[in-house]
Amino acid sequence: MATLNKQAQKKIWAFLALGTFVGLLLLPLFLSLPARAGGDAAPTAAPAAPAEAKPADVKPVEKSRDIWYKTEGPVVGAPAPKTTDGPKDYPRYNFESRVLLWVANQQHLYYGSFVLAVPIFCMIIEYLGIVTKDKALARKYDQLAYDFIKISLTAYSLTAILGGILIFTYLTLYPTFFGYLASIFRPVMHTYALLFVAESGTLYIYYYGWDKMREGFLKWVHVSMSVMLNVIGTVLMMLANSWIAFMQSPAGVDDQGRYLGNIWHVIHTTLWNPINVHRIIGNMAFGGGVVAAYAAYRFLTAKTDEERAHYDWMGYVAMFIGVCFLIPLPFAGYWLMREVYAYRQQMGITLMGGLLAWLFIIQAVMIGSLFLTTNYYLWQGLERMRGAERYQKYIKYMVFVLITCFIVWLTPHTMVMTPGELKAMGGQQHPVLGNYGVMSAKNGAINTIITTTVLSFIMYQRGNKVPTVKWAPLGNAFLFGMFTIAYINIISLAIYGYYIPANVRVGLSVPQVATTLSCLFIGVTLNSIMLKGAKELGPTVWGQISVRSQYALIMLATAFTWMMGLMGYIRSSVRLFWHVNEIMRDNSPWAFTHTIGFAANMISFNVLFFWITILFVFWLGSLGLKKAPAAAPVGQKVPVPVGSH
Amino acid sequence: MANAKVLGGITALIIAGAIGAVLTILPDSGATQLMQKALALGWPGGLVILILMLYFQFGRTKDPNRGQLVFRSIIGLLGYAMFFIAIANYATNFNDESFGASGEPRFLPVSLVMITVSCFTMAMYFKGLRVLLQIGGFMFFVASCLAGFGNWLPQVKADPPPAEEKTADVRQMSVQDRADLGEKIIFGGVGQSGTQGAIGKGQCPLCHGFQKGFLSERAPNLFGVPKRSEDQMKDPRYGQKDPSKRDTIQKEACPGCLEG
Predict the structure, then answer these.
(1) Looking at the structure, do residues B148 and B181 belong to the same domain, yes or no?
(2) Are residues B147 and B86 in the same domain?
(3) Alpha-carbon distances of B214 from A431, B123, B194, rounded to whole Å
(4) Would you say A589 and A85 are in contact if contact means Cβ atoms under 8 Å apart?
């Protein structure tokens, strides 16, 4: 009885502690809600008072119109400064200030994305560890989540340091612009700082409390803390996004850039939510890539079979998470682009059909190579399984389909040509290859690539298994039929697209995407159900995979990082010569847009700088590795991840 | 290991010979300047490796691994030299573009390729760092491919438009002044309408051509459009008498074709 009482008491205290903890974390948010820049409570109230009551010396409140929301509001801020090229507005070293800021921003963003994504993985994996009934597997998941957060902890310090460097770079090289931005986002910046403190506190408690909160109810408290950690992290990211969204599509200010007192309008600009969604998904894909690269590094340096098995499994899980988020990423990108077009058509044309259009060709190459690499990794993964040899013969056909689609996918629509070249070719488009540069061909190609990747994954799931459910022949026939119809549907719609008007053609992407997603969700789910209790042709031996597969993971990670740098550059440079679009002009000597080659060199530099530093972080992480991977039970080298095969 | 040693020794000799030949035969070439810059940047580290090599050779005469240590020092020196030539190439060709500094950013991916080669070469001989060097080399290789592709594509640099001017009240302006203002908005300056590629804040020439024979990449050339419109409207396919017979469908199978 006394024990029960003690347990009940413990639970109550745990609940109270958790409640207090959550309350403290949310406190800064509540405190910041009533805050408004410039303390505009009085000016807002003033117009309601009768005119006669006003003292003669009180100036009437000036009102102005919000450039985006078109609502009227009291002017509470100063106009956007008109800068001039000189040490006052643009102090500098003997170097391009924008490039310095570019490096500082990109590095902070890489680390920020990583430390925001990893706790989400930890949350999911730790939760899986709690609900998994298999004790050995549960320990494995717990160890994996702990490994993840440990890497994140060192990276977190670097993120904070890079954030400091970024602020100093802004203050010293772009003081006028930063001053204007800070004058508008004052309460948001303070909230950001407070949330950063909360994030740090939560992260440290979460990490250092891992062993103390290992069992029972305290484990649930621990997982709840990871939820809180992610909520704070996401809000942090969204607040930072509001600054860049404001620079691209300002709102809450008038046409002179004067703040109109509504902080929500300034935060909630038209591009804010599309950027938020795109970044959350992108961070997850990126985080998956980085963790997969870490696992590959540890696999390649592993001394024992157990270690190799553990990091092979870890790499697989991270790659799986990364690719799961890679698939919806283009759809989030479409939404963002649609909103960009809706906001300013000119901006959309500059991106997709003008100055920056060639950068999308690079992006196309990268997306194609990401899918190719993913497929390659899955095919290599078949080596782990006895009995998977029967699928090897299909790989060559899949390679053919993927390469063909990849070539179509990267064929440009038009080329920049001299008049002589144009005449020789007989027009802007090549008579044969030009047909593959249009949207009909692109949609067909990318959907075929994704569908083939899904097929590779299903093949991988089946590697060493034969379904034994009674309805297996029917299920197999259904899967075969579904994929056959999917390919026919995607390709025939792509061909049909050539013969119909543009406005109808745009609509064809919906059934094509729906076909691809159906294959993904129905195909993978049905296959997983069919494989319940399946006959195993042989064991899955984690760790028995080629070294090449690990380089595929590293390739994925490098490509993710490069693509992130590229897309960030595209999004930022579309403002052209504006600090804040159409509000505050960039009058520095660096207001021009760099060539694609220069941008590609800078992105490569940033990517390599990040990887050199993160390899250092990995090395630091390996120094403090006290615990060996949890021992696997006899007869099973490493537990099989849930739902993998 | 013996074969690797022979291979490494021959490679080191060939590279050293090539460097010596370039320095002697082409003392004013870009390659010589690059090597001189690399030497200026990285000589302290190079000196340390050289001292180490001499120490291994003459200070550890009884060490059975002496030959291996000296050999590794040579390989290290080679990798280090390549690394610093790559950095010198970056420093020379970075070109911030804003000051009109000389330099060719197109050559920067070459640096990444050099570092890749350096990493893989050293990975062959430094077992302790093999994985890190191989991973690093592979990443440099991927980055060099992507940067190289970016540099291979057509290069366009966009200058900002001229500084803003306060526009006078258009209602008070003469017809000529208004026409000039229009030309500035569309083409970026008075008298610029005859220049292919001239573009102003309005950005119309981004898609349209305005002079006879000008390229129009995305939309029709508007030269003589009033006259052309009158003529084209007479085409029976415009269905002046029966609007329901007009065909405005545009297909990717035959862009710009009208059926009929």
Answers:
(1) no
(2) yes
(3) 21, 56, 9
(4) yes
- Chains A and B: how many Cβ contacts under 8 Å? 150
Measure CB to CB from residue A99 to each of B96, B140, B255 and give the nearest one: B96
Q: Could you tell me if residue B225 is inside a domain? A: yes
Distance CA A245, CA A271 (A): 6
Predicted TM-score (pTM) of the model is 0.79
Cα separation, A141 vs A314, in Å, equals 10
B141 in the same domain as B182: no
Contact of B259 with chain A, judged by CB distance below 8 Å, is answered with no
Asked if B249 has any chain A CB less than 8 Å from its own CB, the reply is yes
In a domain, B246, yes or no: no
Cβ of B142 and A296 within 8 Å? no
Output the CA angle A161-B144-A361, nearest 5 degrees: 95
Same domain, B66 and B186: no
Q: What is the pLDDT of residues A302-312, one digit of tens each?
A: 889 998 998 99
Q: Provide the residue range defining the domain that includes B84.
A: 23-152
Question: Cα distance from A568 to chain B (closest Cα, Å)?
Answer: 16
**Rounded Cα–Cα distance for residues B257 and B260 (Å):** 9
In single-letter form, the type of residue at position A182 comes to A
Calculate ∠ Cα A142-A282-A245, nearest 5°.
Answer: 130
Contact A562 B109 (CB under 8 A): no
Q: Which of residues 99-118 of B touch A (CB under 8 A)?
A: 99, 105-106, 108-109, 112
C-alpha–C-alpha distance, residues A117 and A110, integer Å: 11
State which H helix or E strand residue A466 sits in. strand A465-466
Q: What is the mean pLDDT of residues A502-530?
A: 88
* Residue B195 and residue B146 share a domain: no
Q: At what angle do helices A439-462 and A472-496 cross, to 10 degrees?
A: 170
How confident is the model over B211-233, as pLDDT tens digits? 888 877 677 888 888 888 888 88
- Other CB atoms closer than 10 Å to residue A73's CB: what's the count? 23
Q: How far apart are the first and last CA of chain A?
A: 46
Same structural domain for residues B132 and B181?
Answer: no
In chain A, residues with a C-beta closer than 8 Å to the C-beta of B119 are none
* B94, B208: one domain: no
pLDDT in tens, A92-111: 988 889 999 999 999 999 99
For residue A87 the two structure tokens come to 């040490």
Residues B185 and B146 in one domain: no
Whether B160 is in a domain gets the answer no
Whether B165 and chain A come into contact, CB under 8 Å, resolves to: no
Question: What pairing do the DSSP bridges indicate for beta strands A584-585 and A578-580?
Answer: antiparallel
Q: B196 with B215: CB under 8 angstroms? A: yes
Bin A80: left if φ > 0, else alpha if -120 < ψ < 50, else beta. beta
B15: in domain: no
Total of domains in chain B = 2
Q: What is the pLDDT of residue A30?
A: 60
